[in-house]
Specification:
Blueprint: E1 6-14, H1 21-34, E2 39-43, H2 51-54, E3 63-65, E4 68-70, E5 72-75, E6 99-103, H3 119-132, E7 138-144, H4 151-163, E8 169-176, H5 180-196, E9 200-211, E10 218-219, H6 226-233, E11 238-244, H7 246-254, E12 265-266, E13 269-270, H8 291-295, H9 301-316
Amino acid sequence: MSLENIQHIVLVLSGKGGVGKSSITTQLALALSLQGRSVGVLDIDLTGPSIPRFFGIEGAKVKQAPGGWVPVSVHDAQPAVPSSENGQAPRSGSGLGSLRCMSLGFLLGNRGDAVVWRGPKKTAMVRQFLSDVQWGALDYLLIDTPPGTSDEHISLVETLLKQTSPGQVAGAVVVTTPQAISIADVKKELNFCKKTGVTVLGVVENMAGFVCPSCAECTNVFSKGGGEVMATEFSVPFLGSVPIDPMFVMLIEEGKRPVYPKGTAVNGKNVEENGTATDGNQEHNRDEGLLVEKYMSCSLHPIFDGIVRQLVTRLEG
């Protein structure tokens, strides 16, 4: 069975579209890998599969093996190396964990192809992803889901409960934004988790601020704190607030290592304290290195490092 050697399965859910769920999934995966965990990412957002683009592997093709599909590798595991001043090497003593992905995007003829499927075909595809992808041994499998509570979600939870051992499905990370309409929709998602028996591992409030690429300020464009209030109301953990960072977008779209003005502070912490702010001396090597190595220079990495440490502490003890 393709899921039997996976230690922890985590769903990433959102009540509505456009809240940055795939961005959160990507950064959770990168942060886990940087902490030495082997990670798989399964994209079951069938009508909008964006995970291949986030990891810069859109041109990759899935290979067939006797037991099913072989997921696409983002990077292999690497041993621990000493910390370097330019942030290119993993700082963790546990080294770098492997990272692999599976998405319908790898199976489409081209990126612009529309997926026009009725519910039963979507359900069959979700079940096939859960049964036919040969992940091998993984510490974590993150499942990026469509927004809302649709056929895919019901099929996903039902199939997981049938194919996994007790406790293997660790729970769900729920993504919201500070706006009231997003929070209202996420409340429905929390109720869905309650009805289906899925543990809510925590709430992440995305887009809670804007990291200016020019003036070193982080401004709360869409307000902040609504996600934490909602988490308190539902008695679920609040994992953290994540601002919009244009440099992360540039990293994903152009593969450029983030560079910030001196004095940039995010969530009250100076970026320089994490070794990610520069005076421009890194411009010459912005395109070098793996995605995960360049992500270490992003202002969002310390935030997700903290979020992941909370999850790991809860799930691994």
